[in-house]
Specification:
Largest sheet: 6 strands, mixed
Order of helices and strands: EEEHEEHEHHHEHEHEE
Strand order of the largest sheet: 6-7-8-3-9-10
Structural class: alpha/beta
Length: about 230
Amino acid sequence: MSKTVLNCHQVSKTFRDGYEAINVLAGVDLNVEEKQMVAIVGASGSGKSTLLHILGGLDAPDSGVVKIKDQNIHKMSVSKQSQFRNQHLGFIYQFHHLLPEFSALENVAMPLIIGGMSKSESLGTASDIIKRVGLSQRETHRPSALSGGERQRIAIARALVTKPACILADEPTGNLDSKTAHAVQDLMMELNELEKTSFLVVSHDPNLAELFPINYEMVDGSLNLIKG
């Protein structure tokens, strides 16, 4: 029986622009189970990224509940939430956000070091994950010496290194050419199969979403199931 790794119920968020209230999320419900690959599509400004940030504990909802592995993350202290996020969630962004002064290996090891693992063990684990994404020969290089596709592969390795329950990805192929984007898409599918990690991806690209067994569309702050 599959277990729920991420769940939100009636999540709402409103932003204010002067006197105008903009309802970005209007009572969103979502459930992601173990090993599932879920995509959310929608136009720019539809609220996809806002939802992802709230699900990852990077922003707070105005109302509603978010649970990761049955834990209400918005009831945690800031320090507890950060620790929990480090252990159970991985993040991939359109821009890789690798630290330029560190090597690929050190970048991938960083979440483990922050989580309290020894540096030597962290680097060994990071090296194993880098091998899984096919870049062992590049692990000593800094981000500036890597291609766009290589940087995104390293970012994916960094997201996977803690063996999270779920990876949250915001436009993970949006900054890549089509050939490299397809390679990154294939890699995500392969790692989902091998690592059994759930993926929740938001994108405006219907071609990426179509690869995922479960698809939602964000419209006027609500999620509509379109496949799955």
